[in-house]
Amino acid sequence: DGGITQSPKYLFRKEGQNVTLSCEQNLNHDAMYWYRQDPGQGLRLIYYSQIVNDFQKGDIAEGYSVSREKKESFPLTVTSAQKNPTAFYLCASSIGRTLQETQYFGPGTRLLVL
Amino acid sequence: GQQLNQSPQSMFIQEGEDVSMNCTSSSIFNTWLWYKQDPGEGPVLLIALYKAGELTSNGRLTAQFGITRKDSFLNISASIPSDVGIYFCAGHRRGDVNRLAFGKGNQVVVIP
Q: Who among B1, B31, B48 is closest to A59 (CB)?
């Protein structure tokens, strides 16, 4: 089955702790994305990567970091600098570099602060 | 990033009724996407539209790419209880490499 997997489903963070959210895709997509979803708001882009070993900041990158060492993997680290990390985090992927941009989403990770 | 305008924000409909929702923008888009999201889950792509005027169906769902390229419509016919969820639109504007704009979503509640 081709798709996007995210783990864990739920994640708890303590004060001052960094946590990493996993995102894997087997769709052979070049581009991958991380979004944050808060109640009553649209999706906000954190980081995106158009190709391996390259990534760009989105609209709300402060307090987050990413890496793209493999085509199929795009982990997101929520650092202690992110003061309001409680949210639903969604990973997405697309073929990339096309005029017909179509993104597919993973099941999401809910991050809660203890 | 740009936000799309979705209306209405929520709707309560009787089972069996049709429901329509729309998404508008001040900019021209070359792709319109419609997603459904269930609570605690990721959005699922329902319909993708790539050409102005295009009308596409997926079962009881029909979506259209507006002629002006600034709007899109989604219609659900003969609603059933499992249609409950949040429906949101997304659009790709020429020049915004790999980036989508999103609407805030419409909450649909189906009353049996």
A: B1
